[in-house]
Amino acid sequence: MARSSRRPSSARALYRALEELGAAPTPDPALRPDGPTRADGALLLGILLAKGELDAVTRADPGQEPPRGLTEFLSGYRSLTASPHDDTRLHLLSHRLVRSAVETTLDDDPSPLFRAAGDAALAAAGLINAERLNRTGAGREAVQTATAAALQSLRVSIEIISAGG
């Protein structure tokens, strides 16, 4: 399969993809008489990402023997992402961890371990950002600030666990 362009998809293209996958939201015809608008792009992308991740957990289960689906999933993902030395790859890793951390805050009453996991995800995202800043020559102060933020998140995580999480 060929690799597609890196330019962002339009809201209309995202909506068509969601329609094809059976996951398109039903637009309010009074608000969107002409279909999705550019402002809908982030929402539609979030829905598409969720659909992809939901499909991935059923098709790429690491518990399968052999984990063929996971290997193929990762190969497909890597075919569109950049090389290990590309700044974009570090952004993707950090963004995924921040999303995971935010997900832990959405529970009404998260357990201490779940909150600690969220803080640990933030710590990992901060360290990846520090690495990205280091690679791009952002300066020692920017790298230290990112590292300090990661360390603070890690401290919070450890405190939660130490308190009996």
Describe this structure in words.
With 165 residues, the protein is an all-alpha fold. Helix content is 66%, strand content 0%. The chain contains six helices and no strands. The longest helix is centred in the last third of the chain and has 24 residues, at 112-135. The radius of gyration is 19 Å and the shape is globular.
Strand content: under 5%
- Order of SSEs: HHHHHH
Oligomer: single chain
Q: Would you report the number of β strands?
A: 0
Largest sheet: none
Shape: globular
- The separation of the N and C termini measures 46 Å
Low-confidence stretches: none
Mean pLDDT: 88
The helix tally amounts to 6
Query: Helix proportion of residues, in percent?
Result: 55-70%
Structure keywords:
165 residues; mainly alpha
Task: Quickly describe the structure.
The chain has helices at residues 11-21, 41-59, 68-80, 87-105, 112-135, 140-162. The chain has 165 residues and is an all-alpha fold.
What is the fold's blueprint, element by element?
Layout: H1 11-21, H2 41-59, H3 68-80, H4 87-105, H5 112-135, H6 140-162
